[in-house]
Structure formats: structure tokens, C-alpha cells
Amino acid sequence: MRKQNLNIALSDSCAHLASKYPECKTVDFKSGGAIANFFEQADAQCSVLIFGDVELHDDLPELDKDAAMVYYSGEEYLIGSVRDTFDFGKCVIVNNTIAKEAVTRIDRATIHAGMYDFRLQMSRFGNIYCAESQFYDLSTAATDDLDAAHFAYCDPKNHDYQAEAEKVFTRFLKDIDCLIKPPTEPVDGFDSIISRYPARASVIIPVKDRPEVIADAVRSALNQKTNFYFNVIVVDNQSDEPTRKVLRECQKETERLVVIETEGEGIGIGGCWNIAINDPRCGAIAIQLDSDDVYAYPNVVQKIVDTFMREKCGILIGSYRLTDINLKPLNDLIIDHREYTAENGVNNALRVNGFGAPRCYLTELVRINQFKNVSYGEDYDLCLRLSRRYKLTRIFDVLYLCRRWGKNSDADLTPEKLSRFNRIKDRFRTEEMQRRMI
Q1: What does the alpha-carbon distance between residue 351 and residue 152 come to, in Å, rounded to a whole number?
Q2: What is the per-residue pLDDT for 139?
Q3: Total-model pTM
Q4: In Å, how far from its chain's centre is CA 127?
Q5: pLDDT tier, 144 (very low <50, low <70, confident <90, very high otherwise)
Q6: How far, in Å, CA of 393 to CA of 341, rounded?
Q7: Dihedral angle at the C-alpha atoms of 150, 155, 161, 162, nearest 10 degrees?
Q8: Residues 183, 360, 316, CA angle at the centre, nearest 5°?
Q9: Does 298 sit behind a cis peptide bond, omega within 30 degrees of 0 on the bond before it?
Q10: What would the DSSP string read from start to end of 87-145?
Q11: Which terminus of the chain has a lower count of CB atoms within 10 Å, N or C?
């Protein structure tokens, strides 16, 4: 397909490229009305939408009649690729016939999330797929702030966009019969469930080779002040001797520290959680603490349990702050996921990349449902599954200090690493959406 036979639309952020592409139009892709106007006037078979400094190849991919859009990036488009951060690259080719149908369904009044609305609707009427090879060259090197993008949905400055994107996404879920009503009733038999466990709560810490930080995490948990009995369960996933030595020293300080060593190969973080959850010493409420993080103050566990007992919920999730290895805040941002509301959070959670932390569960429900045995996204998957059936409650105060340092999974994000993480969660979203549509 030759570019001379296409309609070309430039993002208003790269209007300076107009001299490269005769008869192109400049379009505000944030605006639903602007997108609709462009495609209503499009007279070619396909259009090229350009979002950055690119040089189109002379020969472009042909689109099958059932193909809505083709892009090129490191990400595979799945049914569950509904997050608004999906990377389509700097240029896409669009089937105008399908686009003309899609723009009849978008909200022309959108001023922030027009492109998100458009591509969701496009996915209803045709396939979106990645080209086998890149069909454009980048004129400038990419300088995207991947870390900022990873947490953009929690940044207050993006509130207007997030509110509009949620509205767009909610309408899309309704269109495809995937919108559900959030559970609001207490967990059936909550008080009876609580009474059957030997401890009111357990702090669960999976660990593998973290001698530098594991003692901080363990003592942060053990030093919590409560009016009930709780314990700390560390699942040591075959750490080397330095980590095991630290744990042995911590065990000398109290009997409330339970250390379980895994056996065999192939046990991920989710598998470690299952081991702890199914252990007879586990408390009625399971509270997350990663091996390199600490609680923000000494009564976090008390606050979590008090909230569980008041709300009689199945899941509770708090808020956290990012710090360096010395617990110095990296910025003013609080990861509180205020986009998760009681009215629509269970639906909007499919759009964003996480639920937050610390994540806390009614142990009985996890014993029934179990974590997937993986080491990324296992918590997101479980929260999607549980929140469809059980009440989820949030605490918007900071409960947790999340250290960013060289050895944790979210540190030093690269495009390849971020793409791999996103693909994992897109698979979980796909599975959850398919469950909801049955």
C-alpha cells in the first residue's frame, strides 16, 4: 500500500511535519469531535495517524477487510489490552470503513480521552494487530519517562484525563456486556470465618536473596502494635545463606516469626503466597509486605484489621509512597488509587495497571481461589477475581513505604521490561473479561 493513496492525519503535537506529507490534516487526537470529523471526511481506503517524528516507508502494510488497525511496537494486542497505556508506537494505519462505523459510537464531547475512546470502539468492529515489521523510521530518539508513565493514573495532575477515560471505558464495557455491579455486601459468614483461625492476622513476606533489606521488613512487621495476636510468616524461596542467616537471627527474637522454606523448583511469588495462606498457622486476615519494604508506622496492622472488622470485606487495599533504599521519599506522589471507587472500581480496575498496596485478604477466600504461581501480576489477577465476587475496601492513608532500588521488580524500567509486564497483565485482563462476558 502506497502512502500517496492514504489519508494522513498528524497529531497537533507534530504539526511541524506537515511539509513532509502533502494534503495531510492536523488533528487533536485527544478530542472525540476532532477524530470523528477527520474520519467522516476521509475518502481513501485507509488512513495513517502519526503521533511523533516519523518517516513513513514508501510501502505500507495492506489491511485485510476485517482489520481495524495495524501498529508496530513491542506489545501484542489482546482482548484484555484495554489499558489506556497500550503502546501503539508513533504511527498506526486505520481501516476507514471500520473507522467511520466506530466514530458513530464515540463521545464527541471528550477533550482528553478521544483517542482512547476511538481505539476501544475500533476493537469492537475489527481486529487490531501488530505489523510483522516496522513501517516507519523514527526521526528522533525516544525519551519517554517510563517510570512516570507507569504511575500516571495516580498523579493528581492527570485527574481530568483519568475521569474522562473511566467514563469512556465504562461505556465500552457496557457495550460489550462486560460491565458488572461492584459487590457491596459483607462477606457471608464473616464473623464465623474470623473465629476459626488461630491468629487474627498474619503478615506475609515472600523472599529470595534480600540480605540487605529483609531484616527491616521483618522487624517492621514484628514491631506493629495491636490489641490482638498476630504473627509474621516469611516464605523463604530457596535463598542463599546470607538471607537465611538474617532470618535465623530474627527468629531468635520472637516465636511470632514463622519461616517456611520452599522445596522444589518453579515456585513464584504467587506460589509462595499459597504456601503461607494454606499453612495452619496463618491468621484470618493475610496482610502483604514485600521483602524490601516497610510499614509507614507501628499501628498499620491494627488499622487494617479494624477496617476489616468494621467493613466485613473480602479485600482491603491501602496506599503507599515511593522511597529510596534509605526510606527517603522519591517524590510527593502518593500511590493511593483514588480512581478506584466503591461505585465503579471493580470495572475501572481493568483499565489501570494495579490495585495498590498493601494488599490484604480474608484468608479463607484466598484458600478457595489461590494465587497463580507467577512472580509478576499475581496480586493483580487475584484482586480482579476476588473483587468481582467480594466487597473491596480501601484505606487512602499511606500505610506502606515502597523502596525503589536495584533489586526490586519495578526498578530500572526499560521498554522491553515494561512491555513484558504489560503483556502479563493483559493476559489476566483477557481472562477476567471473558469470565465476565459468560
Answers
A1: 12
A2: 80
A3: 0.92
A4: 23
A5: low
A6: 9
A7: 80
A8: 35
A9: no
A10: --TTEEEEEHHHHHHHTTTS-TT-SSSHHHHHHHHHHHHSEEEE-SS--EEESS-----
A11: C
HSE, CB side, 13 Å, CA atoms: give it for residue 417.
Answer: 11
3-state secondary structure of 71: strand
Q: Cell for 174?
A: 457496557
pLDDT at site 274? 98
DSSP letters, 207-258, are ESS-TTTHHHHHHHHHT---SS-EEEEEEE-S--HHHHHHHHHHHTT-TTEE
How high is the mean pLDDT of the chain? 93
Helix (H, G, I), strand (E, B) or coil at 69: strand
Which cell numbers hold the place of 126? 475489527
**380-433 confidence digits (pLDDT tens):** 999 999 999 999 999 999 999 999 887 776 666 788 888 899 999 999 999 999
Distance, CA of 17 to CA of 14 (rounded, Å): 6
What letter represents residue 312's amino acid? Answer: K
List pLDDT tens digits, range 220-270: 999 999 999 999 999 999 999 999 999 999 999 999 999 999 999 999 999
Find out whether the peptide bond into 358 is cis, omega within 30 degrees of 0: yes
